[in-house]
Amino acid sequence: MFLVFPLRRYAIVGTAGAILAVTISPSVRAQDASFGCKVLLCAAASNPSWSGIPYCVPVMTQLFRMLARGRPWPTCPEGNAGGLGYDPYLPCPSPMIAYSGGRPTGGDNGPEPLRPDPNGDQCADPARLERACPSRGDNGPVCDPADLPIPRPQRENPHYVDITTGGQTTRFYFSLRGY
Questions:
Q1: What are the percentages of helix, strand and coil residues in the chain, rounded to 5?
Q2: Across the beta sheet with 115-116, what order do the strands follow?
Q3: In 3D, which of 87, 81, 43 has the Cα closest to residue 61?
Q4: What CA–CA distance (Å, rounded) separates 136 from 14?
Q5: pLDDT tens column, 33-53
Q6: With 50 as the cut, is the pLDDT of residue 2 above it?
Q7: Strand 168-174 to 159-165 pairing
Q8: How far is Cα 150 from Cα 93, in angstroms, rounded to an integer?
Q9: How many CB atoms lie within 10 A of CB 56?
Q10: 24 three-state secondary structure
């Protein structure tokens, strides 16, 4: 077996098995695999991740440069990667959910209402949000800051691709900053 770096157990079993079946010949090594297959193997690596594997660093650097220039995710006949996605936010802390809205509309009607939105940029606890500003003081509503929405935490690696192997799909997050 020519693969020398650890791979994510569940997500890569199918792809690694398929690639190994193709590369079973003694004269063929993992480094001879197509670029797309190298990318899938490196993307699925964990403990260490691809950045801790010297073989994977130039492969993934080349990938990120290609993606930053608008090129598509490379293909691998033995693996299945979905299209590129962008998810800039981390999940809201429990029991909060994501909301959008609450910004001034530019008219005299006040801010637009907050509404649940899985892609929203704010987090709030629905039960606390209902009682956020129950009374009005001399200078407007009196609000408990603990009940108001908070900015949703941002993801360091907002780009992703879903990789399906062995009937299981895992999401590989990455950043294109600096490429």
A1: 25, 25, 50
A2: 115-116, 97-100, 122-124, 150-151
A3: 43
A4: 61
A5: 799 999 999 998 889 999 999
A6: no
A7: antiparallel
A8: 10
A9: 21
A10: coil
